[in-house]
Amino acid sequence: MTDLVKRNSGTGKFEVATLGTDYQPPAARTYVLDAASVSPVIPAGGAKIKVFIGMNGSGVNTGLTQDCTINAPATGGTPVDGQEFEYWVLDNGTSTARVLTLVGFTALGVVLPTTSNGAATQKFVAFNGRYAAGAWNVLGVSYA
Q1: Integer Cα distance of 134 and 121 in angstroms
Q2: Which residues, listed in sequence order, are joined to residue 130 by a DSSP beta bridge?
Q3: How far is CA 116 from each of CA 3, 59, 67, rounded to the nearest angstrom?
Q4: Which residues have a Cβ under 8 Å from the Cβ of 1 and sit 6 or more positions away?
């Protein structure tokens, strides 16, 4: 593998760049079209975690058709303090709200979502946050 380089602003010389300081790896995306349980892996190097539930990444967006347990990342790499995450849950566009059970997350100043929107049109529930001090902390929740 080729190392990434940066130009030292003081000397003007090129140096090997440091992961997490000089650059961030691309976000690790997980797509789950429909499942009763979702457990994303922890990517290496502190990459941002993006999870899309009810979508497959290829334009098929049927939405979640069943209740779903959403687990915090627990396998794969080692989490890094400050590592960001985003979860997007697409409702299937029926009037039935789906029960969302979040496991392994800590709410900080927000209320964790417990259902999808259950609207007659497809809508999103999104939540995001950061890993810090041994916990996946949810800092924001929105409904769109």
Answers
A1: 38
A2: 84, 137
A3: 43, 20, 9
A4: none
Residues 5-60: pLDDT tens digits?
Answer: 667 777 877 777 665 555 555 677 888 888 888 988 888 778 899 999 888 877 77
CA distance 57 to 118: 22
Burial 124-137 (b: 16+ CB within 10 A, else e): bbbbbbbbbeeebb
Residue identified by tokens 């687990």 is 71
Which of 78, 68, 87, 86 minimizes the C-alpha distance to 41?
78
The two three-digit tokens of residue 23, written as one number: 């650059």
